[in-house]
Queue: 2 jobs
Job 1
Amino acid sequence: MRFSHTLAASLAVSAVQASPLVKRDGPVTTPKVNDAIILNYALTLEYLERKFYQEALANFTQADFVAAGFEDPFYTNLKEIYFDEQTHVSFISGALSAAGITPTNELEYTFPVTDVMSFVTLSSVLEGVGVSAYLGAAASIMDKDYLTAAGSILTVEARHTSYIRASLGESPFPTPFDTPLDFNEVYSLASAFITGGSSPVKLPFQAFPALALQCTQYYYEADRSSVTFSGAFKAAQKFNVGKDTPIYAVFFSGLQKLPVQVRITAGSSDYKIDRIPAGVAGQVYVVLSKSSTEFNDENIIAGPAILEVYPKGGAPSTPHPKCH
């Protein structure tokens, strides 16, 4: 069973800023963080994951998963993943309270899940984002005990990712390095699922404008496939970007950040690149940047979008089920 995914479309249409997020009205700046902020950031993500699995276990039965091709013990292992996420919530919330810091609370979420397959596909994406979030935050954690705890959670999230990817027929470890994302990049992805609620904790993060990928019947391959970013040029004009302004699609894969200059499609409001760079694989993130060398928050104008990339010549030969 192979089911590649491009989550950008569903992220783009549902990107709603909830109260803990700072709405972007101008250029994004790199947030100043400390361990308390990072722990509440992690707790926010764990709440989201917990709710995601809680809803799935309430809406789908073991028989539903078996009928969709996910044979035993997949359902049992799914319940174990839910237990892990619940334990992470309790642990981080307890650590904050023990330190005299107010923990954030669960918000309201909406997930684009319509059946078992869409749930498992989104599970793979969310677990991958979780790995990238913990990895990207690690360098900013000052307390060694907190860093060790975060590392311990990170490795569990990575095992979740590998298991779900293998269950989908994808490579469980497509690259020798995982991909770190910074705080605003992760919050931009999380904001797509947060639809309401309030929290006593106001985190200093901002969500970039969503970046939508044009659906294609072909699976993405490194060093071969083109990518069209729907409406991206039109949206970029809000940031004083003109038709002669160089903009770069920057692909994050492992420890690589690979820029490719975009072009405006003829008579269109889209940006496009003709070839995904060689060397990227698995769950890949892409942002639009005003710089080809400095990919910081101040230069990013949209994204991240998420796409599954296969090695050149390694993609399924059948049309993509979501875009055929």
Job 2
Amino acid sequence: MSLTDSSPAQIAKAASVASRNLATLPSADRNNALTAIHQSLLQAKESILEANARDLNLASKAAEDGQLSQSVLKRLDLGRPGKWDDMLQGILDVRDLEDPREHLLRMVHPSYEGSDQTYSGLTESTEPQQDGLTLKTLLDDGLVLERITCPIGVLLIIFEARPEVIANIAALAIKSGNAAILKGMLSSRGKESTASFHAISSAISSALTTTAVPNAAIQLVTTRDVIASLLECDNHIDLVIPRGSNELVRYVKASTRIPVLGHADGLCHIYIHPDAEPDSCVRILLDSKLSYPAACNSVETLLIHQEALRSHLPAIVSALLEKGCSIRCDDTSKHSLLTSLPRDKSALLQDAVEEDYDTEFLSPILAIKTVIAPANAPEDVAVSLAVAHINAHSSHHTDAILTSSASLAQRFQASVDSACVFWNTSTRMADGMRFGFGTEVGISTNKIHARGPVGLEGLCIYKYAVSGNGQVAADYGGSVGKKWKHERLPMD
């Protein structure tokens, strides 16, 4: 890894060249690089956290002056319980994943025996491993088509505040065979790289000098004011991944011809049906809203069936209020809570406005809206009403239903147009590490290529390899031409 102040064009070209070498580097070499990165970060923990503490001190003053949001401040903090350990463990988890490009490597290295690493999440599967070969077709005798998994090429990651992104991206890029250009900022308002970024990058750079990974395969850009120029390098950069505020993501999407993978908002919903288990609802709401309110997978709106207002809502709201959460209610839910909560708690309730249902709060605030179905209507009508609200207001990130009915849950999951649709679990489960991907480059709400938490699979594409022995297209077709066989072959 290099910390570079070269011009954007030079950075992009160097990454492009390095990506071709990294794409065919054997698994063992890339796995060794991830082991070295993990060890180097572990040894540099004290200096990295000291740098992060300095960043937090400056960021706290900026937040007090209104120059930074509290959500950015929280994302910057590497000392938050579990964050450092999760970052390091994610590197090892990615290292131990199955290489998605095994077949490609066998083509380059005929004696290649494959990776000895196995993905623990698939060890009990009876499905054969295809080693990156996803299609094999006999077009005609001696003419075979194969579809082979391969890296995308060069990734540009523009991120705000999250220093752990550097380790996450480096691990996933190296494992998947992609080169990565990283540009970090403290915020989209012009605050540039922090001491944390440099400390982590220096540790990774030191580690990679002892490995076979090309130095330019992972670059942290230290030059100021280069984002616009990097976004113009569509001849060398293949995919842009913005990690940060809505402002940043929208700016990137509007400023480049390069494909963009990401999401602008994390406006997540939970719908509670009357048959949901009450105690479970309390636990799930507390986790979804308050375990990390600044996260993009934190719930922002609670939809609750009118028949669950008295049976479920008081316990949920009481628990949230005790933890310091602000509750914004529609008229129906507030009226019910005023008659069921003690006066000291009901006095804390606030009135929701329509804008609240389109707001990603990123803080301990929850908007509540009642789902009112017609009298004697089938119970799936309420689910349809909840789905309609979600599809109209959601950012298509993560939405959940709490119910004991499998049929209603399946209807909800099939109908909600979001990257992640959950049943009886927290929206905070939308995470690459929790999905078993090792880590993630981000969560995508796109509907092409990759959706949801993006791990190794989302950083790969495919190519078609056709092997023949002199066939030409003119041999086929018409009344006298040869006929295609198009027989699906086993992928072994």
